[in-house]
Specification:
heterodimer, A: 263 residues, alpha/beta, Rossmann fold, seven-stranded mixed sheet, 9 strands, 16% strand, globular, B: 349 residues, 2 domains, 15 strands, binds thiamine diphosphate, binds iron/sulfur cluster
Amino acid sequence: MAKAFSRPATFRDVSTNYCPGCGHGIIQRLVAEVVDEMGIRERTIGLPPVGCAVYLDLYLDFDMVQPAHGRTPAVATGLKRALPDHIIIGYEGDGGLAAIGTAEVIHAANRGENITMIFVNNAVYGMTGGQMAPTTLVDQKTATTPLGRNPERDGYPLRLCELLATLDGAAYLVRTTVSSPANVRKTKKAIRKAIEVQMGKLGFSMVEVLSPCPTNWGLNPVDAMKWIEEKMISYFPLGEFKTPEDKNEVLIDDTPKREPKTK
Amino acid sequence: MGSRMLMKGNEAVGEAAIRSGCRYYFGYPITPQNELTAYMAKRMPEVGGTFIQAESEIAAINMVYGAAAAGQRAMTSSSGPGISLKQEGISYLAGAELPCFFVNVVRGGPGLGNIAPAQSDYFQATRGGGHGDYRVIVLAPNGVQEMADLTMLGFHLADKYRNPAMVLADGILGQMLEPMEFRRPDFPPLPPKDWAVGNMENRTSRLVSSLFLGEGELEKHNLDLQKKYDKIQAEEVRWEGLMLEDAKVALVAYGTSARIARGAVIQGRAQGLKVGLCRPITVWPFPSQIVGQISENVKNILVVEMSMGQMVEDVRLAVEGRCEVHFYGSTGGGIPAAEEILERVKRLI
Ligand SMILES: Cc1ncc(C[n+]2csc(CCOP(=O)(O)OP(=O)(O)O)c2C)c(N)n1
Ligand code: SF4
C-alpha cells in the first residue's frame, strides 16, 4: 500500500520547541513539503526570523542565513543578487516585517526583488512575551496594551498585503490562514505559487499567514483557531491582493529577466 | 596597470575594490563620500557586478551581509551618520564571522555635525561601534595611493580572518586628487569559503548565524573570536616611522593629521629640532608595542588628531606612564596647523 502521509525529507525529524497549537510548525511543514515537491532543496536558502521561529534551521534542512530582527528583506536582496538562480525564502513575524523591518520590506517589494517572504501574522510579539504588534487588533489585550489596543494612542492594525499591493515591484501578495485543514491546503498552494513567481523572476512575492499564538492570546489551541476565523479574518481578509495574472505574466519562465552583463 | 594617473580618493577606493574582485556594492548617498557611490554605479554594470542604492544604510549593510554569506566580496561606504546606522549590521557580520569591506569617509559630528573632514569617529571605528565583544580591522590611509592600497589589503584581510575590515578616511582624503597607481598586491592564497551558503549539492546544509543560545556556546564562540583578534593583533600591525631614531619629541598621528605632522617634522628638523613621527596605518590593531618602545626613548609624545582626543587614549594605554603624552586637536572642520604643531614641539623638547 502506498504511504499517504509521511515526513518531507526537508522537514527534520526533531521534536518541536513551539507551544501546543502554535501555527509556526504547520507553516514550516508546508514550506518543507513545497520545497521537496518542487525538488529545489539544494538551491533554496532560508532566512530564520528573530522571533519564536528563530530556530527555523532546526526544522528545515537547507542552507540558512540568520539576519537581524526585521532586516530579512535586505539580507535576502544581497543573497539573491549573489545567487540569482537560487530560491530565497525569508520568514518573519509581524514584529519583524510590519514594525522594525517596514522600510526593508517596502523597498525590497518596490525593487521587485525575486524573493519570497513568508509573513506570519499572529497579532502579537510572541517571543518577547506577547506585546502589541502592528497587527494587534483594536481592543486586543497584550502585555503592552493591558486595557486593549486603543487606536487613539496605539494606531490601527497594519494590513501589510494591502499596503504592498500599491507597489509595482510586488508580483504576488496573498493572505491565507491555517485555521482549518482547507485553509492549510490553500496556504500550501499559496506558498507554491509564491515560489513559482520567484522562479519565474516576476518580482517580489509574499504569503501572509494568519497564525495562532494560543500562549499569548490566552486561549486553548482550538479556541485560538476560532479566534482567527471570528476576529482576525474580518479585519485581515483572506485572498490574493496581487497576482502575476493581473499583468498577464507567465509563471515558471526560468530564463533570467536581468541578464548580468559580462565582459 | 602600473601606470600613474590622477584620481580622487573616493574613486580610488572604488576602482581598487573592483580590482580586488568586489562585485557587490550597496550604498546610500552621503557627503563626503558621494563620488564613491557614483563611481560604483557606473563601474559595477561594466564588470557584470551589482550596484544597489539602498533605502538606508541599515539596508545597505544588510545587503552586504547577504552577499557575503553567499561567499562574495561585497562592500558599502558612508560617512559618520550612515556608519552609525550600519553598526547593527557590522556587529552581526562580526558575530557571524562574515568578511566584508566598508569605508567611513569621516565628517564632523556629533549628530548631523557638518560635512567638513574630521577624525572624530575613531572611537566608533576602533571600539567596535555596535553591541558585543568584537573588533573590526581598521586601516587608516594618508593619501590617494593608500586609499587604493589599503582597500585591496582590506578585502584580503577580511577574507583571511572572516571579519569586517574598513578604511577610516576623512573628507580630505576622499575628495583630494593625487597621482597614484593601481598596484597588483601579491597576497598569499586565502582559505576556501567552505562556510558560504548556496549550491548545496553533495553536502549537508549550512547555517550562517550570530546566534548561540545553547549552554556555553556563546562563551566558546567569543573565546574563539578573541583568539582570532589576538592573532590579528600579533600579525597585522602596520605603521610607519619618520626620524624617530634620535627624537626627543615623537608625534603620533594618522591619516590627514599625519600628513600635516610629517610636514611639521620636516620643518622642525630644518630648524634643528629633534622631532619624529609615528604614523599608525592600522589603528585597530593599534601599534601599541611600537608606541611603547618609542616612549622609552623620547621625553614627550604629542598626539595630533582632528578630534577632541580619541586616539590619544590608545597612545596613553601603550605608553603606560613612561613619558608624558600631550594632545593637540582640531574640531568642527578645522585642521591642525603645522606651525602650531611646531610651536608645541618647541615647548616640549
Ligand atoms: C533590534 C532588536 N530589537 C528587539 C529585539 C527583541 N525581539 C526579539 S523577537 C521580537 C519580536 C518577535 O515578534 P514577531 O516578529 O511578531 O515574531 P513571533 O515571535 O511572534 O513569531 C523582538 C522585539 C531584537 N532581537 N532585536
Ligand atoms: S509564543 Fe506564540 S508564536 Fe511563540 S511558539 Fe508559543 S504559540 Fe507560537
